[in-house]
Design goal:
By secondary structure, the chain is an alpha+beta fold. The protein has a domain of about 220 residues. Helices cover about 25% and strands about 10% of the residues. The strands form five sheets. It has a four-stranded antiparallel beta sheet with strand order 2-1-7-3, with no helix packed on it. Strands 4, 5, 6 and 8 form a four-stranded antiparallel beta sheet that branches. A two-stranded antiparallel sheet has the order 9-10. Helix 2 packs across helix 7 and helix 8 crosses helix 11. The longest helix has 15 residues. The protein is globular.
C-alpha cells in the first residue's frame, strides 16, 4: 500500500517530473498547475447535479469502502511509492475527474502500432507499444512514438459512473444481445477475453475496446500502464520504449510496488475497485416536451440498435447491485465503425471495432467520440460510420426540428 496521503502531499514539492519535450519540472503545491507534468484537476472535480455519489442502498461497511476508495483514488503516487519510471498520471483522479470524481475528462492517451504490407497490425510491443506513456520521472526515460509506427490514435478518458452496475450485468445477457438478429446492417459481437483477476474467460465491457470484464482487472491494468505501479496481476514494469537498460536505471522500487497488506489481504487496486463498484450511475435530468419527443425519435431512427436503452444485473451479493435495471444506453458489444475506428487492434477487437459507448452521462462529457474530435453531439452522430451508416443517414434525413428533439433527449442523459 502507498504511504498515507499526508506523507505523499508533504513530499510533492521535492520530486521532479518531466514530460516529452520539457525540462525537469517540480511538483506544484496540491491543486496548482504543473508545468511539464499532468494537468491538475480543475473546477470540474466539483460534483454537479449529484454526479459522483455512492449507490443508493449501500450498507455502512460498503459506504465506508466507497469513501476509503475515493481517498485512494485521489492520492498521488511518487517515485518512492512506485510511480513510473514512465506514466500518464500520478493519481486516478488526474484523468477521472469530470464532472465529479470518477468521471472522464478531456485527457487523452496515445496508442500506436504499425500495419505491414499484408495489412496485419503490429502493436510494436518491443518498442513500448501500443500505449505511449507521456511522462517520466527522468527525461532520459521519456518515451517517443517510434518511427516505425504508421498508426497513431488518441483515446479520451472514459467515465466510471455506474461501473459496478455494468460489471454486474451477466455475461449471458451481453451474449444474448449479440445473438439477437439486428436490422440496419448492425452485427455487434461480444469481446471474449481472459480476465486477469479471475483467470476465467469473460465478456469484456470496460474500455474503448471492451478490453476488461472486471473492475479489479481494470484497476490493476491502469495502475501499471497509466501510473507505472506493478501489482499482483501485472507484476512486470513497462520499459521505456522497450529499453530494459533504461528501466533498470530508473525503476526505483524493486518487485511488486502495490504490495498486499498481510493483515487485510488487500492493496490499492482493491480500494480503487471498491470506489468504482459503489459509484452511482449518472443522474437523469427531467425531460422537456421536446426531449420526450426526442426519445421517440431516438427509437424510430434506430439508435437503440447499438445504444440499447437498458440491460439488467443478475443476482449479486451486494443488494444495491442485485437485479437492477441499468439504463446505460449501450449493448456493450464491439461494432465495426468503419472510418470511426481508431485503427488499433487490441485483444479480440479489430482495428475498426469499438465498444458501444454508454450514453448515460453523455451531457457532461463534451467533446465527443473516442478521440474528442466532435465538439457537439450532432457532429458525433454525423461522424458515425461502418455499421452505423444506415442509422446515421436516417438521422441526417430527419427534419431539423426532429433532430433537435433527439439532441434534447440526449441532453437529459
Amino acid at each position: 500500500m502507498k504511504a498515507p496521503l499526508q506523507k505523499v502531499l508533504l513530499a510533492l514539492s521535492a520530486i521532479g517530473i518531466v514530460t516529452a519535450g520539457a525540462a525537469i519540472a517540480q511538483f506544484a503545491p496540491p491543486g496548482g498547475g504543473r508545468p511539464g507534468g499532468p494537468p491538475a484537476p480543475g473546477p470540474a472535480t466539483t460534483p454537479i447535479a449529484n454526479f459522483g455519489g455512492p449507490l443508493i442502498g449501500l450498507n455502512a461497511q460498503q459506504r465506508a469502502a466507497f469513501e476509503e476508495g475515493a481517498v485512494e483514488f485521489r492520492t498521488q503516487d511518487t517515485p518512492e511509492t512506485g510511480l513510473g519510471p514512465i506514466f500518464n498520471g500520478r493519481s486516478c483522479a488526474e484523468c477521472h475527474s469530470g464532472p465529479a470524481l470518477g468521471g472522464g475528462s478531456n485527457v487523452t492517451v496515445t496508442r500506436f502500432g504499425r500495419v505491414n504490407e499484408s495489412g496485419q497490425f503490429d502493436p510494436l510491443l518491443a518498442l513500448g507499444g501500443s500505449l505511449l506513456q507521456r511522462f517520466a520521472i527522468n527525461n532520459l526515460a521519456l518515451e517517443r512514438v517510434p518511427a516505425e509506427a504508421n498508426v497513431i490514435a488518441q483515446r479520451k478518458t472514459t467515465p466510471l459512473f455506474g461501473a459496478g452496475l455494468i460489471e454486474a450485468i451477466p455475461d449471458q445477457a451481453i451474449l444474448a444481445a449479440a445473438a439477437r438478429p439486428q436490422a440496419d446492417g448492425i452485427s455487434g459481437r461480444a469481446a471474449l477475453i481472459t480476465d486477469p483477476a479471475s483467470g476465467q474467460m469473460r465478456v469484456g465491457r470496460f474500455g474503448w475496446k471492451a478490453q476488461h470484464a472486471s473492475l479489479l482487472s481494470f484497476s490493476a491494468d491502469a495502475y501499471l500502464n497509466e501510473m507505472g505501479i506493478t501489482n499482483r496481476f501485472f507484476p512486470t514494469e513497462n520499459a521505456p520504449n522497450g529499453n530494459q537498460a533504461v528501466l533498470a536505471r530508473f525503476d526505483r522500487v524493486p518487485g511488486i510496488e502495490d504490495a498486499v497488506d498481510p493483515e487485510t489481504g488487500r492493496s490499492d487496486i482493491d480500494a480503487f475497485t471498491d470506489f468504482m463498484r459503489f459509484l452511482a450511475a449518472p443522474p437523469r435530468l427531467v425531460m422537456s416536451a421536446s426531449a420526450r419527443a426526442g426519445e421517440s425519435v431516438f427509437a424510430t431512427t434506430g439508435c437503440g440498435g447499438c445504444h440499447t436503452p437498458s440491460l439488467a444485473t443478475g443476482n449479486h451479493p451486494v443488494p444495491a447491485l442485485s437485479n437492477q435495471v441499468v439504463n446505460l444506453y449501450s449493448d456493450l458489444l464491439l461494432h465495426d465503425m468503419g472510418s470511426l475506428g481508431d485503427g488499433i487492434v487490441q485483444g479480440p477487437a479489430a482495428a475498426r471495432e469499438m465498444r458501444t459507448a454508454p450514453l448515460w452521462g453523455v451531457r457532461a462529457r463534451a467533446p465527443y467520440l473516442h478521440d474528442g474530435r466532435a465538439p457537439t453531439l450532432d457532429a458525433a452522430i454525423r461522424a458515425h460510420d461502418g455499421e452505423a451508416v444506415i442509422v446515421r443517414n436516417r438521422y441526417l434525413g430527419l427534419t431539423p426540428a426532429a433532430r433537435q428533439q433527439l439532441l434534447d433527449f440526449l441532453g437529459t442523459l
